[in-house]
Write a structure and sequence with these properties.
By secondary structure, the chain is mostly helical. It has helices at residues 11-20, 28-48, 53-64, 67-74, 84-115, 120-151, 174-197, 217-221, 224-244, 249-271, 278-283, 288-319, 327-338, and strands spanning 156-157, 340-341. Strands 1-2 form a two-stranded antiparallel sheet.
């Protein structure tokens, strides 16, 4: 009959083993000696104070915490994806890229699809799909970049410019608010006048001497011109609210949806050549290329308007205010986040 000899590992042995196996082999001997001596001293102190040896060992190991976390401390290895030193730069850069690049790419793809003869539905679908795909790629690669920076000792981001109270935005003055409202009113008045008087006032006339509207008669027949006027008046009302009322999520959402709706309608009209009156183009002696470039210019302006409104809405929701983004500051933030240099020696 044979007797098997077994060795029972103590809690300390198991704790030390769990810590060491997470460390490089070259570090293990020194750290094992240091860790065992530290545990033994702490246990001895508790025993001398009257604690049971087993309870003392358990309490000391509990105070040391998770061996994985302890090993990370010995190896100087971060236990987070993006640490506090880079987190603000990471969030600012990621937010700036998402609110600028995603709408721009989606708008360009939708615009290209429309120029290729696609329907409005297919253009919107491809734009949304491309926007989501672009956003996922931006989030993944930006996170990967900062995770590498967090764990690479030879690379460190350039320090951000020191923040001072001078960077706090100034609240808009009463005169500035009035100027914004007056400018919005003038714009609405000019648009309304142009749409309503276009059929009756023109630089070109037909054979009977009647004015030829610069806008397509299709707009008047289907009431689209009046829809534009109504949307412009609604936009003016939102401008007044944004200048004299506190920030409100309902007003903010309504404002950005209205801007996107108007811009999308303008894109559709221009892409389908329903803005200009062909009779006016012919009477004015314009070539087909001139009319096409006017439509393209309208589409580009509408896409830029969507990008601007989305960015301003994102900044507004983040700050809970009607503050518009400082584009220079955003560009500097992106540049600071992408620029890296070696640490000082």
């Amino acid at each position: 009959m044979t007797t098997a000899t077994t060795t029972t590992a103590t809690l300390t042995d198991r704790y030390v083993d769990a810590t060491l196996r997470r460390l490089p082999a070259r570090q293990r001997p020194d750290i094992e000696k240091e860790l065992r001596a530290s545990i033994a001293d702490a246990v001895q102190d508790r025993v001398e104070a009257g604690t049971d040896p087993a309870a003392a060992e358990h309490a000391v190991l509990a105070d040391l915490g998770d061996p994985a976390r302890l090993a990370a401390g010995y190896a100087d290895r971060p236990m987070h994806l993006i640490g506090p030193g880079l987190y603000l730069d990471y969030v600012r850069l990621l937010a700036a890229l998402l609110v600028i690049v995603v709408p721009a790419v989606a708008g360009v793809v939708g615009f290209a699809r429309v120029l290729q003869g696609g329907t409005a539905g297919s253009a919107i679908g491809e734009a949304l799909g491309t926007g989501v795909n672009t956003g996922v790629h931006i989030a993944f690669w930006t996170t990967l970049l900062f995770a590498i920076l967090e764990r690479t000792t030879s690379l460190r981001p350039m320090p951000a410019r020191p923040w001072t109270p001078d960077a706090l935005p100034q609240p808009p003055s009463r005169r500035a608010r009035q100027g914004t409202v007056v400018a919005a009113f003038v714009g609405v008045a000019l648009l309304t006048t142009f749409v309503l008087l276009s059929p009756f006032v023109s630089t070109e006339t037909d054979a009977n001497g009647d004015p030829i509207s610069i806008l397509s008669p299709w707009l008047a027949r289907n009431g689209v011109g009046y829809v534009f006027v109504g949307l412009a008046v609604a936009g003016f009302g939102l401008t007044v609210a944004k200048n004299y009322l506190r920030w409100n999520p309902a007003i903010a959402v309504t404002s950005v949806l209205l801007a996107i709706g108007v811009s999308s309608l303008l894109i559709w009209l221009a892409a389908n050549d329903r803005l200009l009156n062909p009779a006016f183009v012919s009477a004015a002696g314009w070539t087909a290329e001139v009319a096409q470039w006017i439509n393209i210019g309208m589409i580009v302006a509408a896409v830029l308007a969507i990008v601007q409104n989305v960015v301003e809405a994102a900044v507004g929701f983040r700050a809970r205010s009607w503050e518009t983004p400082e584009w220079n500051s955003m560009i500097h933030t992106i540049a600071d986040g992408l620029t890296i240099r070696s640490p000082r020696r």
